[in-house]
Structures are given as C-alpha cells and as structure tokens.
Amino acid sequence: MIYHTQRRSLSLLAAAGAGFLNACLGTTPAPSDPPPRQAVASYATRMTKDGHRIHALRAGWVRVKASHRELSSPHFWRIPRIIFDENWSDWMPIIVYAVERPNGDIVLVDTGASPRINDPDYFDCDSSNDWFYRRNLAFDVEGGDTLPARMAKVGLDPKRVQHILITHFHADHMGNLERFPDAEVWVGQGNWPSHSGASTCQLPESWRPRVATFADDPAAGFDRTQVIAGDPRLRLVPLPGHTPGHAGLLVLDGDGGWLAAGDATFDVEQTKDGRVPGITEDIPAAMATQTTIRTTMTAWRLGLLPAHDPSAFDRLRGADESRR
C-alpha cells in the first residue's frame, strides 16, 4: 500500500507540474472531424470449436496524441512529450469483448467509456485526471456507440453478465461498471487500488474487485494463467507494462485461441514490430509482453484482439457476419 501511495503522490506531482506548464503554454485541440463510423464495423462475432461465442462490440471512439499511441521518447520524457505533442492520432474504436458461454452466461472484457465521459463534471472527483484527459484525449460516445446500446442491439442480456475483466482502470475501459452490479469483477495484480491514470474515484468507496493470483498453469504459450467462471477454456493472463497489473483474457479455441489484450498493444502491426504504446508505465515489461504475444501468435495460432484495433472485427468475423 505504501508503494502505491508513493507512486500516486509522484503521479500527482508530475501531473500538477505538467498541468501548470500546459496552462501557461496552451494546448493543441483535437481535430474536429467525426469518427469514421461507416468505415469500421460496429459488431463481429465468432463461434469457437467448444461453443463459446466471442463478440467484438464497438462502444465508442477515442483519439489520443500521436506520442501517446506510439512510444517516441525516453521513458522519463514520455508524459511531457504527450502533453506538448501537436499531432493527434486518427479516431480509434473502443472495443469491448463479450464471451458468451454455452450456458448463456457472459464474460466481459472491459466495459468501455461512460456515456457521461464528455460531461464537464465527469472527472470532478480527480483533478489530475481532469486536466490530462481533457487536454490529451478526445472521446465520442454517442448514439449507438455505447456499451448498453450495442449489447441491446446484438441481443446480449446485461443480467447474464457474470464476470468482468477490467484490463486496467483507464477511463475508456471501466465506464458502465455500475450497470452490472451482480457481476464478479476481476483485475490483475498491481492495478488495484490504483495506477497512473486510473479513474477509480468514479467507483463507490465500498467497491472492491477480485484480484487475480495467476497460478503456474500453462495454456497456449502463457506460463501463468487463472481459470475464471469455472471454465478451463477461459483464462486470465498477465500482460504487464501499459499498467503494472494489466491483464487480458485468453479464450482457447481448439489448438489455438483468441487473446482480448486491452491496451497491451494498439494493433497487430505494433506487436509484430515489437513496438509499444507511448502511454506505458513500464517499458521493459511492455516489450516483454509484446514478445510473449508475438511468439504465441505464431506458435499457437493466437488471434490478437486489442481494445482499439479496427482490424480486430475482420479477424474475428466467422460464422456470423460482421454488421456495420
């Protein structure tokens, strides 16, 4: 707990200093063009050989600074580099993955961004997050591009959600948690109670997740896994680097599988090239995670499903067609 408190204090100090400089020197606003809704699928699904149905649900859009998406500075300079970067990435979809088990129960990987994320008071409970998110990220969570609307459209009953993995607590990954009050929420070791950029102040003070322990139980190239929902085909796996306890969900499929990887990578090409996101807390750990994923993709026919990769819909598309 002392370690997390010290880390949080240093993050707040850095945020305050960077916020002061940012206020003095101004900021580069995000481009005003809308997300490419017609060019990116809103839904895709695949049935595994064991009868699990994996859904990719487009639940909003996010745009970040170019140096946020791709590491371009030494570790100590990564946050100032993002703050003063004048270049923005293209819009990226926020993708929530839902795994429908043969009995109808649902496991979610992340819960997307809250429909309220652009409200002026959304980050009032955390001033450091308020200045960073408002100046360095842009969100579009409107109309059908929300998790509740998308689940309703594809016929997924929120009451069937029994387990949720929050890969990490950044605001575009843990909104909407209040809509699943009866679900068991899992997180990786090191992410709870907080990490840099976490939006945990949005949660009730009494709220607690279940922290994965990860046993030496190898599966599809990962040495340490944790079975969830009593289903050996569903494994939590550690994917540290982006945040200390960042985790993913491995869905075994015959002699291969699918990895819902959160922000361990922004897209498949970033993984193949051995690059890491710029907004990474532990760069050596992130690079090791990329190596593990890349090796597993080849050796075990692993399908990679990041949280912001528009090509994930095409990779996942299988027995059911992807819908625009």
What does this structure look like?
The protein is of the alpha/beta class and 324 residues long. Helices cover 25% and strands 24% of the residues. The strands form 2 sheets. Strands 1, 2, 3, 4, 5, 6, 7, 8 and 14 form a 9-stranded mixed beta sheet that branches. A 5-stranded mixed beta sheet has the order 9-10-11-12-13. Helix 1 crosses helix 4.
In terms of topology, how is this protein built?
Blueprint lengths: L1 H24 L17 E5 L5 E12 L1 H4 L8 H7 L7 E9 L5 E4 L17 H10 E4 L6 H8 L6 E5 L18 E4 L22 E2 L14 E3 L2 E8 L8 E7 L2 E7 L5 H5 L10 H17 L2 E5 L5 H5 L3 E4 L1
Parallel strand pairs: 4-6, 6-7, 7-8, 12-13
Antiparallel strand pairs: 1-2, 1-14, 2-3, 2-5, 3-4, 9-10, 10-11, 11-12
Helix pairs in contact: 1-4
- Our measurement of the CA-to-CA distance between the termini, rounded to an integer number of angstroms, reads 46 Å
Roughly how many Å is the radius of gyration? 18 Å
Fraction of helical residues: 10-25%
| Shape summary | globular
Strand content range? 15-25%
The total of helices stands at: 8
Assembly state: single chain
Which structural class is indicated by helix and strand composition? Answer: alpha/beta
Order of helices and strands, N to C?
A: HEEHHEEHEHEEEEEEEHHEHE
User: Taking all residues together, what is the mean pLDDT?
Assistant: 90
How many beta-strand segments? 14
Largest sheet: 9 strands, mixed
Task: Point out poorly predicted stretches.
Answer: 1-16, 21-25, 319-324
